[in-house]
Please model this.
Amino acid sequence: MRSKIVAGNWKMNKTLDEAKALTSEIMGMVADEVKGDVKVVLCTPFPYLIPVKNILGTSSRIAVGAQNASEHEAGAYTGEVSSVMLKSMDVPYVILGHSERRQYFGEDGKLLAKKVDVALKHGLIPIFCCGEPLEVRERNEHEALVCRQIEEALFHLNEESLKKIVIAYEPVWAIGTGKTASSQQAQDMHAVIRKHLAGKYGQAVADSISILYGGSVNAANAKELFACADVDGGLVGGASLKSREFVEIIKSI
Ligand code: PEP
Model:
């Protein structure tokens, strides 16, 4: 059985005090209201990982994640943060290949393959993002592009390594726009991704991978999206910055 996961991507938002308050609120509501075995991940800015972890403590069912990590392990790379550092801080998850990283920082499949390798080498769980821009969908080339993004960054992995990856399908036109994919569009693409994984690694491996949907998920649309057979949870941006909204999304799974 693959895991159900709801991850919040805080991006570059919140002051430290706001981040602490948000964490405490989410933690309290999750403890009181969330039943079942959904995994919750808070992907905070780097400086807040330890303060947020300290609030969550060891008993919490909520984990933290980083939003990026370097392709290098250490060295003269000013401003970068490595998977080695994240592991030494007991951070279990890292988002890799978010469309904002691809768009604003020029990250491509070749670089992401290296980042994935280093993250896995140091025991992190990559939440690997893929997804097409609007013009690609309009040309009806979205399935081919997403399959290519997955091939470029993940298909060099052996079966054992691939099974550690979480995939997030995030159509670029739905990120931060308030325009979510329909549940049919999400299900169709998730099924394509799973079929593509099955073609390379076999059905059992493909069935074990959690594939999250991301792109303007909110409390009103989460239930329908999460009800799709191949949607195993969500990667949530804007709505993860509001405790009540985020917890309602978690409860929708
Ligand atoms: C994201 O940042 O991964 C995301 C999906 O953002 P939003 O939910 O705001 O569209």
